[in-house]
Amino acid sequence: MLLIFVRCGQVCPRYPIDMPATSLEQVVSLCKRRGFIFPGSDIYGGLANTWDYGPLGVELKNRVKQNWWNTFVHRRSDMVGLDSSILMNPKVWEASGHVGSFADPLVDCKNCNERYRGDKLLENKMGVEAVAVLSLDQVQPMLAAEKVNCPKCGKNDWSEAKHFNLMFKTQQGVIEGEGADIYMRPETAQGIFVNFKNVLQTGRQRLPFGIGQIGKAFRNEITPGNFTFRTREFEQMEIEYFVEPKDKAEQFDKWKDTVWNWYTGLGINPEKIRIRQHEDDELSHYSTQTVDIEYMFPWGWGELFGLADRGDYDLSQHEKFSGQDLKYTDPDDPTNKFLPHVIEPSFGCDRTVLTFLLEAYTEEELPNGDVRTVMKFDKRLSPIDIAILPLSKKPHLVAKAKEVQQHLLDETNLVTDFDVTGSIGKRYRRQDEIGTPLCITVDFGTLGEEDDQGPADTVTIRDRDTLEQKRVKIADLRSEIAEYWKS
Ligand code: GAP
Per-residue confidence at 279, pLDDT binned at 50, 70, 90? Predict the structure, then answer.
């Protein structure tokens, strides 16, 4: 019997690689400095492995979610959306198998009392395949035999491994101690399965069709870390795609390509992602086939996305536990009733945002020898679309620049920033660091006061990536910008 199932989402140490140019520290530092991501509860000294998205981070994350929703829900006639509760009837988690099997092997160092995932300690030494086949009672002897010492105190004195269930338990009810135990959902998927019948009855979908959902999930991870890669509270963007059993191999392959194209279409370098098929003994309890899309993170390959064939595991379990008929009736042959099979494309939202941050981070030498840091986000993801920069703080120039900003706000849906502080060079550097694709400079030429800066009623547009500057009539700004966004 396989007692340890190696869950998806872990860093795969099998393929050692050179450290890429972008280090995690560079990105973490930029995130804090520029307001993308802050340590959680910062003024109280933080709470380990919690992170808050700041003003720019929330814009970036929202754009990732909007792009995902637009691509996978709005632009497909075979998909609908859902927003289900985090707190669910505890029977859901018995049916799904999470109460019984959603666990990692926990070991204690008897010398310093530090706790670790035994499989992770062994994986670092032996590789993921060797660990996937170990049973729970083999973990402690193997830690001793392989001389895997405690990373904190250096001793080799391990407790026996025990299952540690990753679900966060809480209580529902107003009287402490008298409420019912309930769980914070460890995946958004089950909210979709328990609503399958409701969606089917109200939406009249025909197979194949899918339900997409974006939302928080919670796991009491034993070893969170690597910034937002593994946290205890995180967001998922999940699809449960319901198919006839005979079509599932074809649909599985289609989803693999679709998701690959989504990531690369938004700027992920295809050479920095790869597909990895799970070994049989690595599969989650519900899956008969899983592939991950992995990204080359600064510490090595790590899971970004998982695609699983869940078969009819979940619907049949929920039928059994709820007593409800969850079968689909073939509209062309009402005598043909069956449980659809499920292909599940599951995206980690925070990991996806982290990947876009790492991928965008670029240090470039300029012709004058200066080095600029620029976040080369795909322009559909940049938190700010356009910055409006008056050349100086002179009130009548600032007023004109505000007019230009208002013109853009009235005429477009673009997100703008207005910055008047510091030299124009420093302001360009700041916009580069937050990834703003275009900057508009309003100068004395715009006001008709300095011919050598440009003709009256024109502004300069600067391109983040090419650094090209172009003089444009204010009256033509909207069409110029629309043209740029089309390219
Ligand atoms: N419903 C299937 C499921 O939850 P999973 O591989 O456990 O599968 C899906 O999780 C995705 O959620 C992963 O590919 C990863 O991107 C993200 N994820 C999982 N655990 C996470 C954690 N502790 N912190 C951040 N993201 C996580």
Answer: confident
Average pLDDT over residues 225-238: 97
**What does the mean pLDDT of the chain come to?**
91
Question: What would the pLDDT profile of 445-482 be if each residue is shown by its tens digit?
Answer: 999 998 889 899 999 999 999 999 999 999 999 999 99
187 CA distance to ligand 1 middle (Å): 8
Give me ligand 1 centre to Cα 234, in Å.
8
SS (H, E, C) the chain: CCCCCCCCCCECCCCCCCCCCCCHHHHHHHHHHHCCEEECCHHHCCCCCCEEECHHHHHHHHHHHHHHHHHHHHCCCCEEEECCCCECCHHHHHHHCHHHHCEEEEEEECCCCCEEEHHHHHHHHHCHHHHHCCCHHHHHHHHHHCCCCCCCCCCCCECCCEEEECCEEEEECCCCCCCEEEEECCCCHHHHHHCHHHHHHHHCCCCCEEEEEEEEEECCCCCCECCCCECCEEEEEEEEEEECHHHHHHHHHHHHHHHHHHHHHCCCCHHHEEEEECCHHHCCCCCCEEEEEEEEECCEEEEEEEEEEEECHHHHHHHHHHCCCCCEECCCCCCCEECCEEEEEEEEHHHHHHHHHHHHEEEEECCCCCEEEEECCCCCCCCCCEEEEECCCCHHHHHHHHHHHHHHHHHCCCCEEECCCCCHHHHHHHHHHHCCCEEEEECCCCCCCCHHHCCCCEEEEEECCCCCEEEEEHHHHHHHHHHHHHC
**Residue 274 predicted with pLDDT over 90:** yes
Instruction: Return the residue whose CA atom lies nearest to atom 22 of ligand 1.
Output: 230
How many A from CA of 384 to the centre of ligand 1? 28
CA-219 nearest atom, ligand 1: 23
